[in-house]
Amino acid sequence: MASESISVTTSDDQTIQLSRKHAQMSQTINSMLEDSVGADQEAIPLPNVSSEVLKKVIDWCTHHENDPAPVEKVKKLNKKREYKAKNSTISDEWDKNFVNAELRVIVDILLAANYLDVKGLFELMCKHIANELKGKTPDQIRERFGIQDDLTEEDKAAMRKAWGATKNDS
Amino acid sequence: MELADLPDDVLLSEIIVRLPPSSISALSQTCKLFNSICKDHNLWREKCRADYNLPPSLYGRFEWSTLYRLLNDPVVLTWGENDGRLMQTGDKSFGSNIEEPKVVEGLRGKKIVQLSGSGWGFHALSSDGKVYAWGRLKDHAQNILQAEVVPLNHTFTSISCGRSHALALTDRGQVYWWNDIHKPRLIMEGDIVSAVSGWTSGVILLRDGSVRYYSDLTRQPAEHPNINESLHSLCLSTGTTTTDDDRFVQVAAGEGLGLALSSSGQLWDLIGRKRLTKFENANAEHPLTHLTASFQKFAVYNEAGDVLIGSSRDITEPQVIKGLQKEGVVQVSFGDWHSGALNDQGQVLAWGGWQNGARGFKLNGKKDNVEEPHPVEGDLKGMFAFQISFAGWHSAALAVPMSIDAFEEMIKKRKLDVRDEEEPEQERPRRNLRRGPFLPGRRGRSMGLPVQPPNKI
Fold it and tell me: Which residues form the SKP1 component POZ domain (chain A) (predicted)?
């Protein structure tokens, strides 16, 4: 019988125990488990995820462990994502608190969720970043996201002309 | 880790696609990197689809971000036999043919994004998912002189007319059929990608790549389709090979024509159950990427700008129309005796018979048959056409002004205040309509879009 917990090794060389239920919420780990059925269960290496970020991922999985499974996996047809219009509404109050973190952490969790293929968490992080971008001027976006301004005044004038006047419509 | 560390495809397909145009504009003006990312062709193509209901079948390497900003008020133009089918002001007197493209004033402000010609009229799809119809679907029937809305409370995402019937697809994957716009009938429901008509027939493509072909939809659809196939079932029964993940991604119908194109570029005659290899092999380096059909003819396109024409009279033999090759042609459409093409510069070309003005021009003042494509002007002069529909003895085009400056000039001229026409939709780009040159299409570069796996419409 399969054990109820799974060991994983993070990028900072920590071994962390995951419940099987949480591990299976990651399509990446789930596939590794399916591929190694019957083999000795060694710790699964997760070289792209730090222990700090993995703990955040586990927090999210714990809160969402009883959610219905996503209808379909994140499709990677021809390694190209589909460009489909999506909303950015975050309705779960717990999720709203969860995303209240430093940008560095948000980006790290997003990349981890992408690597681990945890669809709900990945979408939550993308929605949060979209919401943070909405309604801001170029200056406000640079400040919020720490983007270095490498544009000359001529560049900016040309862009304003090409894009038209920028107004907030959110 | 910073925002710029995210892979471009995550930024575009998961984050930027969720933003309203003003925020995309703001992000693009923060630094060179984001300015370059925000110009992405597929992003704006999807914004055109999501915000304006522009059919995904619309094809062409247009400057989609500029088209998006101009889509606020597309113009419908019609020309040809004026017996009530053109919705022109002269309709009441009839008899006076419209010999050049002329704006249909009665459709201004309706935000039409797709046109489809029937035997004696047109159907059109609007941004808000309504289907309008004018002219008639049956010979000798009474004309609808001012466009009527098909009475169904659904959001339609595509419309396609045969000679005497129409197929329309809703955003919930329902296919409606009618030969009288007041009596629409649901004929199929499911994970449907497209439903296209041609003459008496129609083909429905499902997301799994299977196709249903109906040979006669004139009176009422048969309970079961005449053909129910997939690429793999055809390959299996004909001893042809393909890859596991290859499947049909586009379909087309016409008189005696049922065609399907696969993601690898295999072109199949569904009725004759055979591959049309002469079309596939015409340019070994560039597989076929696109397929359209009307009446007795079809057209296939590739990324190199080749357009080959096929006919139900000899379906296996490709014909080349002089003057259309490597010209960035994105659509070819056929009437009874006249034909038209649209290029990625937004220019409409026509050839064939004059047909009471349906060709759109006289050559040296003469109505004689014209073999080579020539530009069509009239009210299309100064406009960028992004779709055409030629049928019977009539023609139509959908166009936007050539530049945003020209757009404002036109509004001033027409004394039409678009602000009154605009719906209270937050994400519509009216606010961005200020200044900016219309960047011409990219003639000479790869003109076709690769065949994408079918998206949920």
Answer: 5-66
